[in-house]
User: Which sequence fits this backbone?
């Protein structure tokens, strides 16, 4: 992984086709939420498939926790769809046959002479694609467990939402005075409740425009 892809950096805003062949920009898929980005070897890898199944089981908690999940694979479109369907993953899978991400991040798995794949990584992203934590999953135990992701997202959410502790007296007074600027998603600078519900539903065609390749 490139040295500059570390905590506090902004992750590249890649544009790749999703499982419906629609170009998607990562920042559009993220919206104003937190994000878990999974860079996977592909459907042939049993380690990757097992990790994906764990994420599928955990996914309902991502939804209610205002956290988007996106997978990027070097598989072709047909294999990407098989991978997504066979694991019952409901989130977007982006496919990168040209190895744009692999090359740009310098994560080619050079020990695999049979497949031109990425070294698996799981990346926890704050708003605006800000890197919070990077997990190297070359070995299976390098990947985050769901309990570790829960802990990472708790800490990240604590730093993100100003109304994390609504028992705070100052916040209580602001609410009583009708000042909702520090409350998500009620504040003037926040998204609407309708848009939030669409994001939680994964209705990307309704809350994010189709990305144009740069």
Assistant:
């Amino acid at each position: 992984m490139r040295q500059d892809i570390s905590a506090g950096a902004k992750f590249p805003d890649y544009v790749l086709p999703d499982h419906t062949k629609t170009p998607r920009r990562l920042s559009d898929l993220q919206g104003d939420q937190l994000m878990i980005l999974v860079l996977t070897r592909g459907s042939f890898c049993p380690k990757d498939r097992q990790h994906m199944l764990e994420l599928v089981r955990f996914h309902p908690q991502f939804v209610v926790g205002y956290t988007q999940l996106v997978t990027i694979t070097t598989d072709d479109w047909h294999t990407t769809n098989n991978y997504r369907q066979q694991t019952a993953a409901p989130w977007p899978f982006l496919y990168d046959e040209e190895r744009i991400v692999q090359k740009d991040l310098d994560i080619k798995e050079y020990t695999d002479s049979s497949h031109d794949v990425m070294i698996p990584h799981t990346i926890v992203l704050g708003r605006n694609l800000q890197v919070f934590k990077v997990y190297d999953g070359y070995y299976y135990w390098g990947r985050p467990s769901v309990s570790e992701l829960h802990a990472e997202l708790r800490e990240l959410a604590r730093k993100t939402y100003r109304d994390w502790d609504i028992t705070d007296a100052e916040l209580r007074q602001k609410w009583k005075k009708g000042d909702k600027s520090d409350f998500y998603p009620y504040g003037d600078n926040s998204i609407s409740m309708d848009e939030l519900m669409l994001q939680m539903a994964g209705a990307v065609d309704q809350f994010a425009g189709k990305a144009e390749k740069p």
